[in-house]
């Protein structure tokens, strides 16, 4: 167990290493869901939330491709946005079932295309009661020095929309 925690810490630390001389900024969104944390985590843990979001936001997401992996650590995912000329690629670097945390590192596109040096997306599913939880979506990012005046930012709206979609889907399909 200690080895697993140490390895997870190492992975997260190595993601931030590229931004060590830069200040990481955060954009965060939280949404309460009236469904147990385990059910929400099932959707977020692998590719479920990505596929559901792409299906529901066809006017925003043209396609989603799994470039590598099966939804676990190491999976590379590419989202192509309408009208199809911009995309975002990320790699899942941490999936912690015990804490219900998923972390992905941006590889290209997104705010990396407009002046950010790092983009790290983290989802936390936080249990409130046995029948409710919080979906916390966070984007940590660092801006390249030469782009600081432009103040480029990632867009948290897609993650917030995904949480809303998850909430509607899970709350309407309660057993």
From TrEMBL:
<dbReference type="Pfam" id="PF00407">
    <property type="entry name" value="Bet_v_1"/>
</dbReference>
<dbReference type="InterPro" id="IPR023393">
    <property type="entry name" value="START-like_dom_sf"/>
</dbReference>
<protein>
    <recommendedName>
        <fullName>Bet v I/Major latex protein domain-containing protein</fullName>
    </recommendedName>
</protein>
<comment type="similarity">
    <text>Belongs to the BetVI family.</text>
</comment>
<feature type="domain" description="Bet v I/Major latex protein">
    <location>
        <begin position="26"/>
        <end position="159"/>
    </location>
</feature>
<dbReference type="InterPro" id="IPR000916">
    <property type="entry name" value="Bet_v_I/MLP"/>
</dbReference>
<feature type="signal peptide">
    <location>
        <begin position="1"/>
        <end position="21"/>
    </location>
</feature>
<dbReference type="InterPro" id="IPR050279">
    <property type="entry name" value="Plant_def-hormone_signal"/>
</dbReference>
<keyword id="KW-0732">Signal</keyword>
